[in-house]
Amino acid sequence: MAVADDSGIKTYADLKGQSIGVLSMGSVGVVVARAVVSAAGLNPDRDVRIVVSGEPAQTAALMRRGDVKALSQFDTYYAMIERAGVKLRKLRDPEIELFPSNAWVALEDTLSKRRAEIVGFTRAYAMGTAYSIKHPREAIKMVYELYPETIPRAVELEEGVTNDQISLDDRIKTWRLDNPEKDAWGTIDVEAFQAYFDWLQKWGLLKAHVDAKQLSTDGLIGDINQFDKKLIEEK
């Protein structure tokens, strides 16, 4: 979660009586907001108001007016809100800080029957990630070329790239391999996933215990990483 940089809100307990902006009432941001205020001893139904704050520019306007005091959204949205003129400060939470985000999911039968296709797809994703980390501006321009509808219309191309790079740079912080010489793309942090599943069960989103080890495999990692990382980065 995040608040305006100059906000007096320092902890989740300080959110009592305040409005929290989310992307939609069906987003995971609602789950996070309710969980953290509950953990802080507040009643999420009475002590805070969770509201849909809209797109980044609208959210920024609501925060400037004081209609929304905190946000439970995503890193890329935070970057766009800051681009709209509201500097943010994240509320640190060691319990959820290291939770995983996206992951590829497939049925065991699919992994068996279409292994080569899955390896090829995920290897391409890893190669694209490695390239984007080293060449963010070029990667953004590739997206513009493939998806012209993403090209900013109100500014010059290079300015649009610069603006979009703010969001990309924020995401890249979580993409980097901790040890590029030893770590591999696609490796699952089983302990982080287990902590996440346990947290979901704690707050009633999972009805029973889920074993992260049974839902993950490193059997494809070696094949996925069969590409020249330095060559990709130098292109």
Descriptive notes:
- This protein is an alpha/beta fold.
- The protein folds into two domains: 2-90, D-Maltodextrin-Binding Protein, domain 2; 108-234, no CATH class.
- Helix content is 47%, strand content 7%.
- A five-stranded mixed sheet has the order 3-2-4-1-5, with helices on both faces.
- Strand 2, helix 1 and strand 3 form a beta-alpha-beta unit.
- It is globular.
- The mean pLDDT is 90.
What does the secondary structure layout of this molecule look like, with pairings?
Layout: E1 2-4, E2 19-22, H1 28-39, E3 49-52, H2 56-65, E4 70-71, H3 75-83, E5 88-90, H4 108-113, H5 115-134, H6 136-146, H7 157-175, H8 190-202, H9 221-224, H10 229-234
Parallel strand pairs: 2-3, 2-4
Antiparallel strand pairs: 1-4, 1-5
Number of domains: 2
* Tertiary shape: globular
- Describe the largest sheet: 5 strands, mixed
Q: Structural class, from helix and strand content?
A: alpha/beta
Mean pLDDT reading: 90
What is the helix fraction of residues, given as a range?
40-55%
Number of strands: 5
Work out the helix count.
10
Residue runs with pLDDT of under 50 for 5 or more positions: none
List keywords for this structure.
single chain, 47% helix, 2 domains, alpha/beta, D-Maltodextrin-Binding Protein, domain 2, 5 strands, 10 helices
Please give a quick description of this structure.
It is built from ten helices and five strands. By secondary structure, it is of the alpha/beta class.
